[in-house]
Task: inverse folding
């Protein structure tokens, strides 16, 4: 049983910054990839940034140079530092983690947070 809880969303101004956090808890054996996705009405959920356990990262072209993903493995937490915010960053942001649960065999599965609203407006 695993839960992911996001925090840090809210209202930001164009050019401003927000920092999202997502903490995983429960009967976790290990966490592989962690990431952030976002979704706006009428569009499919899209990848924003991912980070693997070793620290390598990938970003969507739209956020490169502005957003930074990081993780604290000891805390089972992933962060998204959002800078130079734009109105088009407005979306519901979802935390994702590929997790191996204790007692579930050597298989991982994806877990999702409930999402946190980010609104960028002047």
Result:
């Amino acid at each position: 049983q695993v839960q992911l809880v996001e925090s840090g969303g809210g209202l930001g101004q164009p050019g401003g910054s927000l920092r999202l956090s997502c903490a995983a808890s429960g009967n976790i054996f290990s966490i592989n990839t962690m990431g952030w996705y976002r979704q706006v009405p009428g569009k499919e959920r899209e990848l924003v940034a991912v980070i693997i356990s070793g620290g390598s990262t990938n970003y969507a072209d739209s956020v490169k140079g502005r957003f930074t993903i990081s993780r604290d493995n000891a805390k089972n937490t992933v962060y998204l530092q959002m800078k130079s915010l734009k109105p088009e960053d407005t979306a519901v942001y979802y935390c994702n983690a590929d997790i191996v649960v204790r007692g579930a065999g050597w298989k991982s599965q994806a877990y999702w947070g409930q999402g946190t609203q980010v609104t960028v407006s002047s």
In short: The longest strand covers residues 28-39. The chain has a mean pLDDT of 96. The radius of gyration is 14 Å.
